[in-house]
Amino acid sequence: MLPDLDDVLGSVRVIALPLVTRFRGITVREAALFEGPEGWTEFAPFVEYDDAESTRWLAAAIEFGWSPSPALRRTTIGVNATVPVLPAADVASVLARFPGCRTAKIKVAEPGSVLVDDLARVRAVREALGAEGRVRLDANAAWNVDEAEHALRLLASFDLEYVEQPCASVDELAELRSRVQDLRIPIAADESIRRARDPAAAARVVDVVIVKAAPLGGIRAALGLVERFGKPAVVSSALDTSIGLSMGAHLAAALPDLPYDCGLGTAALLAADVTDDPLLPEDGQIPIRRITPSPMLLDRWSADADRTAWWTARIRRTHTLLQDM
User: Residue 197 above 90 pLDDT?
Assistant: First the structure.
């Protein structure tokens, strides 16, 4: 059942956390945190997302705060390092923030960047991880089919685990997959699943599905989609605080199969968090546990009055949309 708006807003705290480096074009990550009967939860759709899309994020936050999580099948989750678009010379310092991680996801194709810099960054990661490390790419749907094929033929020599969302549309993903079959690089879908009206359409034409608890409407909704897809799944984050990462970790722990490391180590990209014991990677893994924020850190990283009002209004609007569903 949907809790009353007053129950949601009664404990809400809006925070603004600095990042270690620019990521997705931002240097500060904002989120709204509130407490339900099951514990603290997080509502943090990116600011450019409209209310309709943000409604799924609120549904996920309410589920995690008001409903017991599904049964867990594991107590820790293997995670990947995440390498933003940055100079190759900075790769080693980023990887050092992910101790023990033997998988790295590298952002490529960011607007304003060039392929030669992507190549240098991927080469630096491969050299740092060695031949036994696993290297995956994330283009965030930035390439067209020709650009993606050209880039993958240049990058294939780095023994890629998979490439995530190389193109935007399902048709483009299908065409690219047919063009690069000889390279044996699996294709994964993220945006084509979490932002689609029909996520199964993308799942049918790719090899790996990326699932995120909050954008998909919660842990149970994501579990249901993975069951429908019948494809290997990777649970990833949306640059969450440790509270949001805990939601993703509970999803990953509930999946019947988890063949890949997950993108749930991104607390390492935050220069601050809301807990004294954040979900940072240790020996390449994070534990499955709920997070209770520190009152002192909530105060330290509290957003200003204008941003708090903006997020509160957003919760009011999305709660109304949920009521009408």
Answer: no
Q: Which of 105, 107, 121, 250 is catalytic?
A: 107
What is the C-alpha to C-alpha distance for residues 222 and 237, in angstroms, rounded to an integer?
A: 13
Are residues 167 and 191 in contact, defined by beta-carbon separation less than 8 angstroms? no
Residue spans of the domains in the chain: they are 5-68+295-324, 76-287
Residue 24 has pLDDT above 90, yes or no: no
The second-level CATH assignment, the architecture, of 76-287 is: Alpha-Beta Barrel (3.20)
105 is catalytic: no
Does residue 212 carry a catalytic annotation?
A: yes
Identified catalytic residue from 212, 250, 314, 319: 212
5-68+295-324 belongs to which homologous superfamily? Answer: Enolase-like, N-terminal domain (3.30.390.10)
Is a pLDDT exceeding 90 seen at residue 112? no
CA dist 267 and 244 (Å) reads 10
